[in-house]
Amino acid sequence: RVVGEKILCQRSLQMRDQQRAWQESPEGRNMLEFRSSLPAYREKEAILSAISRNQVLIISGETGCGKTTQLPQFILESEIESVHGAVCNIICTQPRRIAAISVSERVASERGEILGENVGYKVRLEGMRGRDTHLLFCTTGILLRRLIDDRKLKGVTHIIVDEIHERGINEDFLLVVLKDLLPCRPELKLILMSATLDAELFSSYFNDAATMKIPGFTYPVRTHFLEDILEMSGYRLTPDNQIDDYGQERIWKMNKQALRKRKSQISSTIEDALRAADFNDYSMQTRDSLSCWNPDCIGFNLIHYILCNICEHERPGAILVFMTGWDDINALKEKLLTHSVLSDPSRVLLQICHGSMDSLDQRLIFEEPEDGVRKIVLATNIAETSITINDVVFVLDCGKVKGSSYDALNNTPCLLPTWISKVSVQQRRGRAGRVQPGECYHLYPRCVYDAFADHQLPEILRTPLQSLCLQIKSLKLGSISEFLSRALQSPEILAVQNAIEYLKIIGALDENENLTILGRYLTLLPMEPKLGKMLIFGVIFNCLDPILTIVAGLSVRDPFLTPMDKKDLAEEAKSQFSNDYSDHFAILRAYEGWKDAEIEFAGHDYCWKKFLSVQSMRAIDALRMEFFSLVKDIGLVDSNMTCCNTWSYDMHLIRAAICYGLYPGICSVVQKDKSFSLKTTEDGKVFLHSNSVNARQTIIPYPWLVFNEKIKVNSLFIRGSTAVPDSVVLLFGGSISKGDNDGHLKMSPGLLEFFMEPAVADMYQSIRKELENLIQS
Ligand code: ADP
Ligand code: MG
């Protein structure tokens, strides 16, 4: 112990010397000067003292005031300077990996250190940390995983949960767990950080915990709504084409029919105006009905007009454009690069920023352009609070976010761009006023803004809860419903029941809601239960290699690209992968083709010709290695075994694995002459998503399709499907009955005939039973 303490002491002194030397160096002094200009820095002493006085502290402050980068640093610095030296172990969680990485890099560089020493990060698949890491930035998911083995978070001194205002499902879950942990760990400090003020809610949740607000400073931001932009472009609004009182009380109080009429009047006024101003490619978006959104209609003319206007007439400063997602960002980028005066790189530096890009691309968005070059960043709502781009003066806000919602009644997730909340509008607008007075262009009328909700619904109330329920079980937190009733806002009972029911159907929970052996393994695999099941199947039935590819393929962004102007070619390229009536096989074939091409250094070329994303291919490559070491780590595969691939080329078996994972996502194929329709037992008719390889078929020579997910966009669509035969469903899917409407799957006529022979039916039943036992054990 004495030797240990001595080493610790030496290390502390070393850290202190290092910290002081940096602070006194010219670069260090520059950095300190920047840091001390941040509003959070001015509150340093008050913050530290509040932390020492309270076990739980809730800190809010405007985005960019220095919460994320400064606060953890204050704690670290003061610990290093303290008499006992740095014995702290600070964990700061971020909802998104991109934020965890970029913030840790920033903090390390502010401290003049190499990342991975005192300051590190850990996200899924990536991490940089060492034995001496005292400040770790990680995703919330990583901390939740740690809790499985380390319920008390041994050795951790401070937990900082960042961006809690976003109310992500992981954060809400973590808060319930931490609330239970605090009394058992009186010396553990919990700090919650949030951009916008909802401090009261969190404070009362933690028994009136202390709150603190960092006074912020932003420059005034001038706002322009759609009607202002129209006027700017020379379109005059007259008294009878005013776009007004759309969201006002009076209108909401009208009866439904009158309301609809008024809304459509306003929509058409907006459309007329946009048409007259030649912005009519944008008209879809201004409509109220969310289902009217058409991703092809990204309002290019309007956005282009504003961008050109800024570039020609306005003072220097970067432009930040908020879009809904990867698809429309890409579409806009492509259009700007091909059809625009803005494609000139000596005038414009065009960059994109979204959650799934890799860390190298991320760094580019912080780069300062050369003099006379205008930086334009196309971003998702990730730039709303988690990432601050320094030099932004102009903001374009499309008013939408791609949000998931969940319809518990129909047990269906929906993924639609939805209008943002007023709080989000405020945030987006605020991004323009960080360095000087700014301008914000809202691409929708003021009356639409008036109708926005104040806050967005927390994620726990709008997503399926299967993974969450499994996590609750793996952390041994007791009854799922009881636990969730203690959340900040509890989800609907029906949503919880649906999730539990699903977990029972897939064999992860038994009748008494206890984890089965399969369930226990699923909790050890950081992926959706259905993907975990496929992996386990791959191990048991010795066909792991292709399953690794498919599971990895479903965990990354869709590798098949469809550029707007080459849609036909892209579809044609994709149809070459469609022989097997399976989107999963298409991924497998695409990956295998790429892998072969890579051997001859022609991977890039291959992707180009086949309209595949190189990044996705690389991500699949990395992920499948990761998943392989994971199945070894959890003891499913012997650690010295290099493969379990005896049956990897048996396509029937792979089909079975896909069915085993995706069940109860199944629908029957009703074949007519030259077309087919799809039916599920609970929803009736469903449709294939247009990007499925099966969508281009006229005949599916199998009676069933299993699918990844069902999504509601106007109608019910299924995404990612594979055709499977009766025998596979019989052995690895749910129960099939001869009758019609009892919630069971109905046998196809051929199978029915077969089953008339009782001995055959018995045989099937007993094989099935044996397989179930095999998998469970
Ligand atoms: P908050 O968490 O309060 O929103 P941050 O701590 O993320 O604020 O950022 C504080 C300031 O640090 C930002 O305003 C920005 O000027 C600067 N900053 C943050 N990250 C970077 C980075 N990667 N590169 C350059 N400056 C950065
Ligand atoms: Mg922050």
From TrEMBL:
<keyword id="KW-0378">Hydrolase</keyword>
<dbReference type="GO" id="GO:0005524">
    <property type="term" value="F:ATP binding"/>
</dbReference>
<protein>
    <recommendedName>
        <fullName>RNA helicase</fullName>
        <ecNumber>3.6.4.13</ecNumber>
    </recommendedName>
</protein>
<feature type="domain" description="Helicase ATP-binding">
    <location>
        <begin position="48"/>
        <end position="215"/>
    </location>
</feature>
<dbReference type="GO" id="GO:0003723">
    <property type="term" value="F:RNA binding"/>
</dbReference>
<dbReference type="GO" id="GO:0016787">
    <property type="term" value="F:hydrolase activity"/>
</dbReference>
<dbReference type="GO" id="GO:0003724">
    <property type="term" value="F:RNA helicase activity"/>
</dbReference>
<keyword id="KW-0347">Helicase</keyword>
<keyword id="KW-0547">Nucleotide-binding</keyword>
<keyword id="KW-0694">RNA-binding</keyword>
<comment type="similarity">
    <text>Belongs to the DExH box helicase family.</text>
</comment>
<keyword id="KW-0067">ATP-binding</keyword>
<feature type="domain" description="Helicase C-terminal">
    <location>
        <begin position="302"/>
        <end position="476"/>
    </location>
</feature>
